[in-house]
Amino acid sequence: MPKTVSARALELAQRRVPFVHARVVRAQAPASAHPGDEAIVYGDGTIDGFVGGMCAEGSVRTAALGALNGGGPLLLRVLPAGEVAFPDTPGATVVVNPCLSGGALEIFLEPVLPPPLIEVVGTTPIAEAFIALADVLGYATARSLPDGPPAEYTGAVIVAGQGRGDAEALRAALDADVPHIALVASRRRGAALLDELGLGEAERARVHTPAGLDIGARTAPEVALSILAEVVEAVHARGAPPPTALPEQPAQAVDPVCGMTVTVTAGTPHLTAGEKEFWFCGTGCRDRCATGLVGG
Fold first, then answer.
1. What residues contact residue 87 under an 8 Å CB cut-off, 6+ apart?
2. Is residue 177 part of a domain?
3. Residue 277, domain member (yes or no)
4. Assigned domain for 260 exists
């Protein structure tokens, strides 16, 4: 990536902020963008970087927000009206943009979502081994105090204090409605601790103890591996929990001139006519509409 885009992407990843990385992979003259041009699209529709002029940017914004909100990676093909120069590409989303001045674009849109966050309670050998293994898989881990609430959007809490603060950590994870809670304990000690907490049937079912899949683990790293395998299984079985908050998706409107779907942001060209609001893909369509309204 260009330095400014790559630095911004790294900062966003460290802050666990979701975004879409947009990269131009093919461009046809006279398009203003070139292969390698890149941008970041935020959850509110804001764009940093350059992937084309206003009309192309509008198409990128709308497709990127769809990708970020569950659509997954996609190849966006932006074509002027009547353009057929690019051959069909399986898996591509095609947008015919009547407002392009010419030139077709192919832009790869990749949502960048923070990895699942797993909080680990305890400094035991099993806890240390779990953190090391989770890092290999790219999962984000954080130390958690036994009596502190888990961070927002925590996907799992592993209670590995082995007697130190276990009850407090379990209660905090249950109260925070963490999707996956695992207690490192023998079957007997785990059951006794759940009895001590006075948990009802529904809450008891949410605590996995003994933690981990039964793989015959004996050493601390092996136990940690079994716990991580159980977490992976749980994440994929229910779908990954939200890694962080996504901004409310901006509203969309149809440009009354060209018929394009437009994502409404602070910078989207618009007109007010009486009690009606009109939104446009660019200033050209807005000006043509304004001329028609005045003439009418």
1. none
2. yes
3. yes
4. yes
Torsion of CA 226, 228, 230, 231, to 10 degrees: 170
130 and 19 fall within a common domain: no
* CA neighbor of 172 nearest in space, from 199, 149, 141, 142: 149
Check: CB of residue 253 under 8 Å from CB of residue 279.
yes
Q: Are residues 257 and 229 in the same domain?
A: no
CA distance 10 to 114: 11
Which range among 211-225, 234-248, 265-279 has the greatest average pLDDT? Answer: 211-225
The lowest-confidence range among 57-66, 100-109, 197-206, 269-278 is 100-109
Lowest mean pLDDT among 12-21, 218-227, 235-244, 261-270: 235-244
Question: Count H helices, E strands: the chain?
Answer: 8, 15
Least confident stretch, 60-69, 169-178, 250-259: 250-259
- 33, amino acid identity: A
Q: Domain of residue 204: give its range.
A: 117-238
pLDDT of 19 > 90? The answer is yes
Q: What's the distance, CA 224 to chain centroid?
A: 27
Considering 55, 80, 112, which residue would you say is the last residue of a domain? 112
**2 within domain boundaries:** no
- Dist. CA 264–CA 261, nearest whole Å: 10
pTM of the model: 0.68
